[in-house]
Amino acid sequence: MLTLRPVDALAAIAEPRRREILRMVSLAELSAGEIARRFDVTRPAISQHLRVLKEANLVSERKSGTKRLYRARPETIAELRAYLEDFWDASLRTLKAAAEQEEQRRSRHGRRHESH
Amino acid sequence: MLTLRPVDALAAIAEPRRREILRMVSLAELSAGEIARRFDVTRPAISQHLRVLKEANLVSERKSGTKRLYRARPETIAELRAYLEDFWDASLRTLKAAAEQEEQRRSRHGRRHESH
DNA sequence: CACTTACGTAAGTCTATGCTTACGCTTCGT
DNA sequence: ACGAAGCGTAAGCATAGACTTACGTAAGTG
Which 15-44 residues of chain A approach strand C with CB closer than 7 Å? Predict the structure, then answer.
């Protein structure tokens, strides 16, 4: 039952600041304020980034007193990774196959092809 | 001498349509028109996507007569893949380490921690 | 019960971006 | 030389999105 597709996570990761945030909450569980202090932007901006990451299931949230602690979710990261692995594999495999075919064609008849 | 960072390629890939285009030009060298015909958008829109992909070095362009043929560039795809591999590795490794530390703490003293 | 701390959210702004139509440039066929 | 084919680019538009300030809320503190 996976309603969120890896694609949402990919879009979330495309943002440099969110990538940085995800790195931070991979190293340690952090509060929104702690994260915001390490950036030049205001705290609400970070809250909004955290919401995107949370909606993409890339981070989990836990309340502790007045704070909210965020941490990266390895499962979703692994899913996104797998999704992209398939993407790379499909691309690179077919590219390699195409290059080899071309190489064969080139060597079979000595004249250069595709002059059209 | 790599002026273009993998990050640009990542942003390019974040767009669903561009991911689809990249898949297509991995399977076969295609002209802009051929690509556009497979989408519901106009040809200029595809041209603009192709420009983004080209600037990210994800596709190469070759002129043949009045056409321009596009093809995925395996090198850049591999670079982006490597960049992300590092990202996953760093995230997942530290997450695993943190989880283990926590597990140790939890088992060392029987009571639950972090009540604050 | 105030007051403070630590937040999220709403509203508004500015920029980026994905799209369209209009146009101009090459290259090929005749 | 001329029209058509195949593109890229410019300009304009509408939407998304990354910010800001202002405000509201829940949980500790005195």
Answer: 31-34, 43-44
Which residue type, as a one-letter code, is found at position B96? Answer: K
Q: CB of A65 within 8 A of CB of B116?
A: yes
The per-residue pLDDT for range A64-85, each reduced to its tens digit, is 999 999 999 999 999 999 999 9
Q: Could you tell me which of B58, B68, B64, B65 has the C-alpha nearest to residue B21?
A: B58
In sequence order, what are the residues at sequence separation of 6 or more whose Cβ sits closer than 8 angstroms to the Cβ of residue A64? B114, B116
Interface test with B, best of A19, A79, A95 (most B CBs within 10 A): A95
pLDDT of residue A61 exceeding 50: yes
Q: Domain residues of chain B, as ranges? A: 1-106
Interface contact B40, partner A, CB < 8 A: no
Q: Which residues of B touch A86 (CB under 8 A)?
A: none
pTM of the model: 0.86
Structurally, at CATH architecture level, domain A1-106 sits in Orthogonal Bundle (1.10)
CB contact under 8 Å between A77 and B98, yes or no, is no
Quote the percentage of chain B above a pLDDT of 90: 70
Give the nucleotide at minimum CA-to-C1' distance from B15: C18
Is 50 exceeded by the pLDDT of residue B9? yes
